[in-house]
Design brief:
Ubiquitin Conjugating Enzyme; 32% helix; 18% strand; globular; SUMO-conjugating enzyme UBC9, putative
Protein backbone atom coordinates (compact mmCIF):
# COMPACT_ATOMS: atom_id res chain seq x y z
CA UNK A 1 0.00 0.00 0.00
CA UNK A 2 1.20 3.47 -0.80
CA UNK A 3 0.90 6.63 1.24
CA UNK A 4 -1.52 7.90 -1.41
CA UNK A 5 -3.79 4.90 -0.78
CA UNK A 6 -3.68 5.57 2.95
CA UNK A 7 -4.41 9.29 2.54
CA UNK A 8 -7.34 8.73 0.17
CA UNK A 9 -8.87 6.12 2.50
CA UNK A 10 -8.43 8.37 5.57
CA UNK A 11 -10.03 11.30 3.69
CA UNK A 12 -12.92 9.00 2.73
CA UNK A 13 -13.28 7.84 6.37
CA UNK A 14 -13.26 11.44 7.60
CA UNK A 15 -16.04 12.36 5.16
CA UNK A 16 -18.11 9.32 6.21
CA UNK A 17 -17.60 10.16 9.90
CA UNK A 18 -18.78 13.74 9.42
CA UNK A 19 -21.96 12.49 7.73
CA UNK A 20 -22.76 9.76 10.23
CA UNK A 21 -21.25 8.94 13.61
CA UNK A 22 -22.64 7.67 16.90
CA UNK A 23 -23.86 10.34 19.35
CA UNK A 24 -21.29 11.44 21.92
CA UNK A 25 -18.29 10.19 19.92
CA UNK A 26 -15.67 12.55 18.52
CA UNK A 27 -13.01 11.68 15.94
CA UNK A 28 -10.88 14.17 14.04
CA UNK A 29 -7.35 14.67 12.80
CA UNK A 30 -5.02 16.55 15.14
CA UNK A 31 -4.23 20.03 13.82
CA UNK A 32 -0.55 20.82 13.20
CA UNK A 33 0.42 24.29 12.04
CA UNK A 34 -3.18 24.95 11.02
CA UNK A 35 -3.39 21.80 8.89
CA UNK A 36 -5.04 18.49 9.76
CA UNK A 37 -2.56 15.66 10.36
CA UNK A 38 -4.52 12.87 8.71
CA UNK A 39 -2.29 10.18 10.23
CA UNK A 40 -2.94 11.24 13.86
CA UNK A 41 -6.46 11.56 15.21
CA UNK A 42 -7.86 12.61 18.56
CA UNK A 43 -11.05 10.86 19.56
CA UNK A 44 -13.47 10.73 22.49
CA UNK A 45 -15.36 7.54 23.28
CA UNK A 46 -18.29 7.88 25.68
CA UNK A 47 -18.86 5.16 28.26
CA UNK A 48 -21.84 3.02 27.31
CA UNK A 49 -25.15 3.83 29.01
CA UNK A 50 -26.10 1.47 31.81
CA UNK A 51 -22.48 0.50 32.55
CA UNK A 52 -19.95 1.60 35.17
CA UNK A 53 -18.27 3.55 32.34
CA UNK A 54 -21.37 5.71 31.66
CA UNK A 55 -20.84 9.50 31.82
CA UNK A 56 -17.12 9.11 31.19
CA UNK A 57 -15.61 10.43 27.94
CA UNK A 58 -12.41 8.55 27.22
CA UNK A 59 -9.71 10.10 25.02
CA UNK A 60 -8.39 7.77 22.34
CA UNK A 61 -5.45 8.57 20.08
CA UNK A 62 -5.59 6.88 16.70
CA UNK A 63 -2.34 6.63 14.72
CA UNK A 64 -2.44 5.52 11.10
CA UNK A 65 0.55 4.25 9.15
CA UNK A 66 1.20 4.61 5.43
CA UNK A 67 0.21 0.93 5.27
CA UNK A 68 -3.42 1.75 6.15
CA UNK A 69 -5.93 0.21 5.38
CA UNK A 70 -3.91 -3.00 4.87
CA UNK A 71 -2.71 -2.59 8.45
CA UNK A 72 -4.84 -1.23 11.30
CA UNK A 73 -4.28 2.04 13.11
CA UNK A 74 -2.74 1.86 16.56
CA UNK A 75 -5.13 3.13 19.21
CA UNK A 76 -4.19 4.45 22.63
CA UNK A 77 -6.01 5.44 25.79
CA UNK A 78 -4.00 7.58 28.24
CA UNK A 79 -0.82 6.04 29.64
CA UNK A 80 -1.57 4.06 32.82
CA UNK A 81 -5.27 3.66 31.97
CA UNK A 82 -6.83 1.00 34.22
CA UNK A 83 -8.29 -1.76 32.02
CA UNK A 84 -7.34 -5.41 31.47
CA UNK A 85 -6.89 -4.90 27.71
CA UNK A 86 -4.86 -1.69 27.76
CA UNK A 87 -1.07 -1.90 27.91
CA UNK A 88 0.75 0.36 30.42
CA UNK A 89 1.69 2.70 27.51
CA UNK A 90 -2.03 3.07 26.72
CA UNK A 91 -2.11 0.90 23.59
CA UNK A 92 -5.45 -0.85 23.25
CA UNK A 93 -5.40 -4.61 22.80
CA UNK A 94 -8.45 -5.42 20.67
CA UNK A 95 -8.71 -8.20 18.08
CA UNK A 96 -10.03 -5.90 15.31
CA UNK A 97 -6.88 -3.78 15.74
CA UNK A 98 -4.56 -6.73 15.17
CA UNK A 99 -3.77 -7.91 11.64
CA UNK A 100 -2.98 -11.39 12.98
CA UNK A 101 -6.52 -11.69 14.33
CA UNK A 102 -9.64 -9.86 13.18
CA UNK A 103 -8.39 -6.79 11.29
CA UNK A 104 -9.89 -6.34 7.83
CA UNK A 105 -9.20 -3.34 5.57
CA UNK A 106 -12.96 -2.74 5.41
CA UNK A 107 -13.21 -1.94 9.14
CA UNK A 108 -14.13 1.72 9.58
CA UNK A 109 -13.12 4.31 12.16
CA UNK A 110 -16.69 4.16 13.45
CA UNK A 111 -16.44 0.38 13.93
CA UNK A 112 -13.10 0.75 15.72
CA UNK A 113 -14.38 3.36 18.16
CA UNK A 114 -17.62 1.46 18.85
CA UNK A 115 -15.40 -1.61 19.41
CA UNK A 116 -13.33 0.33 21.95
CA UNK A 117 -16.52 1.45 23.71
CA UNK A 118 -17.71 -2.15 23.87
CA UNK A 119 -14.31 -3.38 25.11
CA UNK A 120 -14.41 -0.97 28.06
CA UNK A 121 -17.31 -2.83 29.66
CA UNK A 122 -16.48 -6.26 28.22
CA UNK A 123 -12.81 -6.96 28.91
CA UNK A 124 -11.24 -10.06 27.42
CA UNK A 125 -9.64 -11.81 30.40
CA UNK A 126 -8.04 -14.31 28.01
CA UNK A 127 -5.91 -11.60 26.41
CA UNK A 128 -4.67 -9.38 29.24
CA UNK A 129 -2.41 -6.46 28.42
CA UNK A 130 -2.21 -5.31 32.04
CA UNK A 131 -1.81 -7.73 34.92
CA UNK A 132 -3.10 -5.55 37.78
CA UNK A 133 -6.42 -4.65 36.12
CA UNK A 134 -6.88 -8.22 34.89
CA UNK A 135 -6.23 -9.64 38.38
CA UNK A 136 -8.85 -7.29 39.85
CA UNK A 137 -11.31 -8.18 37.08
CA UNK A 138 -10.84 -11.94 37.54
CA UNK A 139 -10.40 -12.15 41.33
CA UNK A 140 -12.29 -9.19 42.85
CA UNK A 141 -14.94 -7.70 40.56
CA UNK A 142 -16.15 -5.32 43.28
CA UNK A 143 -12.67 -3.80 43.69
CA UNK A 144 -12.32 -3.70 39.88
CA UNK A 145 -15.56 -1.71 39.55
CA UNK A 146 -14.46 0.68 42.31
CA UNK A 147 -11.18 1.35 40.46
CA UNK A 148 -13.07 2.01 37.19
CA UNK A 149 -15.48 4.39 38.92
CA UNK A 150 -12.58 6.20 40.64
CA UNK A 151 -10.74 6.50 37.29
CA UNK A 152 -13.89 7.82 35.59
CA UNK A 153 -13.67 11.00 37.71
CA UNK A 154 -10.79 12.12 35.45
CA UNK A 155 -12.93 11.70 32.34
CA UNK A 156 -16.20 13.43 33.18
CA UNK A 157 -17.35 15.98 30.61
CA UNK A 158 -16.68 18.86 33.05
CA UNK A 159 -13.07 17.82 33.56
CA UNK A 160 -12.19 17.67 29.85
Amino acid sequence: MSQLTAVSRIVEERRAWRKDHPPGFIARPIMKKGQPDLFNWECLVPGKKGTIWENGYYPVEMKFSTGYPASPPRCYLPEGFFHPNVFPNGQICLSILNESYDWKPTISIKQILVGVQDLLDNPNKESPAQQRANDYFVRDIKAYKMEVIKQKEQYLKDSL
